[in-house]
């Protein structure tokens, strides 16, 4: 956030605080497609063929978001950039004074698309990066697409510097990529980008499995075994230390506290859906 203008920071802060003061959800998720061009083992998407709602329907949903007093929406998928009119979605957010936050896997993000999004008024973008060696890691199947991390992170910086877009890297921590998390974080730091982290632990996303004998311990992604949990705790300790030393990690310490409590057996988790956020699918 250091490179972002003060006025943009103030607008982002207001988009969160004003709804809270008014006892309204401060964040919404709008699903613009279920279609995705790659396959990630940890993803919740099951139907990759759904192309999503029409622009007319998206406008109606944005009107509803504004009506309830929410001023920030996360543009979700699938992969939102598979829509040719994704910049129009951003423009419709802008017209309603709703902060737009785009989540992307980055495969289709090039300078041309970055310019379209920036000129449309995009406020925030996060790009998933879960492995630096997809050819050796089955976690993400890029298919016909390739991902050059250095090149993609430069585009995030371009958006940040030219269009005042808040840009950061999103990392899912699974049993398959724990060894890559710190290198990915250091790469983000090299490009002066912050990171956000999500731990995929048992239970996280339970697949649509017909086998009644399925157990999470057999899952290739979720962190569940004693050995994996021990390794994760070591990793989280390193991440906390990096945060304390000034590494730009968006997630508050409270998030890591909840993860560690969960790993220690505390399964209580107060759901804030409806109060702090809501989804429109």
Number of helices: 8
Shape: globular
Approximate helicity band: 25-40%
How does the helix and strand content classify structurally? alpha/beta
Strand portion, in percent? 15-25%
Rg: 19 Å
Give the neighbour order of strands across the main sheet: 8-7-5-4-3-1-9
Number of strands: 9
Report low-confidence residues grouped into runs of 5 or more: 204-210
Question: Sheet with the most strands?
Answer: 7 strands, parallel
Mean pLDDT: 85
Distance between the termini: 30 Å
Order of helices and strands: HEEHEHEHEEHEHEHHE
Features:
single chain; 281 residues; alpha/beta; seven-stranded parallel β-sheet; two-stranded antiparallel sheet; 15% strand; globular
Report on the structure:
With 281 residues, this protein is of the alpha/beta class. Helices cover 37% and strands 15% of the residues. It has helices spanning 6-21, 55-67, 86-95, 111-120, 149-163, 181-190, 226-244, 253-263; strands at residues 27-31, 39-40, 72-76, 99-104, 124-128, 140-141, 166-173, 194-199, 277-280. The strands form 2 sheets. The protein has a 7-stranded parallel β-sheet with strand order 8-7-5-4-3-1-9, sandwiched between helices. Helix 6 (181-190) links the parallel strand 7 (166-173) and strand 8 (194-199). The radius of gyration is 19 Å and the shape is globular. Residues 204-210 have low confidence and may be disordered.
